[in-house]
Amino acid sequence: MSADPARLGRTGAAFGMAAAITALFNTTLACVKDAYRPLQNLMNTIAANNWTTQGLSDGILFVGLGLILSNTRMVETIKPDRLISFLIAVVAVAGLGLFAWYAVF
Amino acid sequence: MNLTANDAILLAHATLGVLGTLSAVWVFVETLNAQEQNAQRIQTAALAVAVFMVLAWIVGGYWYLHYYPVEKALILKRPWPFAHNLFMETKEHLFLMTLILSLYLPIAARDRPHANATTRRMVLSVAFLIVLTGLTIEGSGAVIDHGVKIALLRPSSTVGAK
């Protein structure tokens, strides 16, 4: 719980940052595996399909990063409103980026 | 009624996605009026978003691996290959982002949005993003479905796969 009403709790901020980083990772991995077939083939062998592997990777990254950041003071140095804006911007850019990638390539 | 496992799983996937999106709307509305009295309801609704989206992922993933390849092959040979190349590719990867946001929502909602304006803004933002991406995904599903329909209705028109 957050003691200061102007701030997010440490866990909330840590997993918020983890969600933003995971969203970026998700779009980057989608583009890289689409452009580089050996990576897609490798991902197909890990969990039956590259998409399944990507989903599991996202989940592990989100939980892992969230837990790591929860145990550091790093997220407390970020202004809460900046973190919220960053998350919104990342989801917008990553979502539109996916659409643009598949529209062009 | 001739309802196959393919039909049931696909409909369950879409239904779970809609329920997840509606639960995110519920979180958004409750959080707009966040008070101590509805704090538990916000957490329950946020948990419902996560549960519905995880179930939508599991059910949709099963359908995607076991039944979609036949429809994909059909779409790619016919007039609307972009139903797969653009809409399905975007949808399946955008959904993973929605899933992560859905897993995050109950964590953010635990932080007393009725007592903390910053937490309230975070919960509202995440719930809004889930609704926005959820609706985009549902719309993409409709385009993919129509791509299959067009392929079956216009079998003589063929277009090379991208």
Low-confidence regions of chain A: none
Q: Taking Cα atoms only, what radius of gyration of chain B do you get, to the nearest Å?
A: 18 Å
Q: How many separate domains make up the residues of chain A?
A: 1
Give the assembly state of these chains: heterodimer
Q: Please count the helical segments of chain B.
A: 5
Query: How is the main sheet of chain A built?
Result: none
What is the number of helical segments of chain A per DSSP (H or I, 4+ residues)? Answer: 4
Q: Which secondary-structure class do the elements of chain A indicate?
A: mainly alpha
Run of helices and strands of chain A: HHHH
CATH topology of chain B: Four Helix Bundle (Hemerythrin (Met), subunit A)
Return the CATH architecture of chain B: Up-down Bundle
In whole angstroms, how far apart are the ends of chain B?
37 Å
Task: Please give a quick description of this structure.
The complex is a heterodimer of chains A (105) and B (162). In chain A, 78% of the residues lie in helices and 0% in strands.
Give a verbal description of the structure.
The complex is a heterodimer of chains A (about 100) and B (about 160). Chain A is mainly α. Chain A has one domain. Chain A is about 80% helix and about 0% strand. Chain A has four helices and no strands. Chain A is flat, with a radius of gyration of 16 Å. Chain B has about 160 residues and is an all-alpha fold. Chain B has a single domain (about 5-155), classed as Four Helix Bundle (Hemerythrin (Met), subunit A), CATH 1.20.120. Chain B is built from five helices and no strands. The longest helix of chain B has about 35 residues, at about 115-155. Chain B is elongated. The termini of chain B are far apart. The mean pLDDT of chain B is about 95. The interface of A and B includes residues 9, 19, 34, 59 and 81 of A.
